[in-house]
Amino acid sequence: MLEIKCPYCGKRSQNEFSYGGDATIKRPQLGDEISTEDWDNFVYYRDNPRGKHSELWHHVSGCRQWFKVSRDTATHEIFDTCKMNEDFNV
Amino acid sequence: MQKYSVFSLVKNAFTNHENWEVAWKDPQPKKEYDVIIVGGGGHGLATAYYLAKEHGITNVAILEKGWIGGGNVGRNTTILRSNYMFDSNAHFYEFGMKLWETLSQELNYNVMYSPRGIINLAHSDAQMNAYARRGNSMRLNGIDAILLGRDDLKKMIPFADFSETCRFPIHGGLMQPRGGTARHDAVAWGYARQADSMGVDIIQNCEVTGFDVNNGKIEGVQTSRGNIKTKKVGLCVAGSTTLLADMLNMRLPIEAHVLQACVSEPVKPLLHNVVTFGAGHFYCSQSDKGEMVMGGDLDGYNSYAQRGNMPMIQHVLTGGLAVFPNFSRLKMLRTWGGIMDMSMDGSPIIDKTHIEGVYLNCGWCYGGFKATPSSGFVFAHTIAQDQVHELNSDFNLERFHTGKIIDEKGVGPKPWIG
């Protein structure tokens, strides 16, 4: 069982959360000239690291806020969590 | 190579089974090979076998970091099927089903192919309509499919919950009678033994640590057992694909996720088919030893750990108990996890790459085991001929650029939902 610290509610069990994927992906800027490669990268291509991974989680059965988690994909260790407009401390 | 038969069994019984030949050798890596396959799982071993058998290329090495068959080919739930709707999938997997049917004879190794039928249960009228459509698509592609009603199923799986007041009543199902199971380890060992007998070097405990690429061409691989030259490299490493692709500066439409499975204690024969629950993700078959082999959803977050967490086991088995309430008293024997190379459209990638001589076989999601023979066959063709086989021409990397994706489930590029 993962224990995830929601930045709004504190530590809760994994059951209360749902996953939202890689947090480093940025949608190409609206209004800019966007190449098809940029779209491919945004929609389909991922770094998929073995180790530290920034990802989105949703406290769906709690405060319903989205937030960011820094977690190790090899050990499942959670290093840090933060709000969407913040950066990790660790 | 010693042929396995009832006579060789009897003959060896007289000598206490102490004189069997080793099934495959343990060679030192040579300085150079025509083709190197990275990954000694089902797909890698099958690829090496078909390279030797179909294309006469026998100066081949399989490099395996651990031991052969220790990854996903030893961790799956052994299900075989070709019940796909899209043409590219249907043709590819049906070609594989035909290989499965004669694989034991071809490999002189009993892979225990058991065409016990796979049944997908439907729990609503809409789902019955969808299954009728899928069944029709399958039959148009020459694949066997039968639409079952509630009364048919009552005879086949009488112990399922057929009450009308349950949350997901059983309306019917779609069955592929030729679908079933095979003994997963035997598949790896059978391919390994035959490939070895034709001259393929199976090199275990040999981790690939880098690639020598010069002017866009592959020239060799660096391994924990020294550098080896080659002109062609095939990657068959499933969940570890991104780790190798990183060494080649290749970014892929792949995410690694952990999928768990579990088996119960052995019980007397009860479940004669493979059955999938249609209102959640749960599937089950009974092994020849009597264990219920069960699986379901991904844990749902990126992971390279070959183990999962209890919440997903609980979730999957809750679905299982909804359809088979009598399983509630089964004791669990063991659970385990494997790393899935989840592609962004749920379909595999078998293709050439931007580096000359590097070939890619990945993106198998949950479905790699049943594809072992067909994947090996077309990947061997792709490597030997330096061009894709017609059966894997749609499983290209280009589709993530052109938009001609093969999204059988229609969930979009979110593998953790699929």
3D structure, described in words:
Chain A has 90 residues and is mostly beta strands. Helix content of chain A is 9%, strand content 37%. Chain A has a domain at 1-20 and 51-90: Folate-binding superfamily (Folate-binding fold). In chain A, strands 3-4-5-6 form a 4-stranded antiparallel sheet, with no helix packed on it. In chain A, strand 1 and strand 2 (10-13) form a beta hairpin. The model of chain A has no long low-confidence stretch (mean pLDDT 96). Chain B has helices spanning 6-13, 42-55, 87-101, 103-107, 125-140, 150-156, 184-197, 241-247, 310-323, 372-385, 399-402, and strands at residues 32-38, 60-63, 79-80, 118-122, 146-149, 172-176, 180-181, 201-203, 208-214, 217-223, 226-235, 254-266, 274-277, 282-286, 291-302, 332-343, 349-352, 358-362. In chain B, the strands form 3 sheets. In chain B, strands 1, 2, 8, 9, 10, 11, 17 and 18 form an 8-stranded mixed sheet that branches. In chain B, a hairpin with a 4-residue loop joins strand 14 (282-286) and strand 15 (291-302). Chain B is globular, with a radius of gyration of 22 Å. The mean pLDDT of chain B is 96. Chains A and B meet through strand 3 and helix 1 of A and strand 12 and strand 15 of B.
Task: Label this structure with key terms.
heterodimer, A: 90 residues, mainly beta, Folate-binding fold, two-stranded antiparallel ribbon, 1 helix, B: 418 residues, alpha/beta, 8-stranded mixed beta sheet, 11 helices, 28% helix
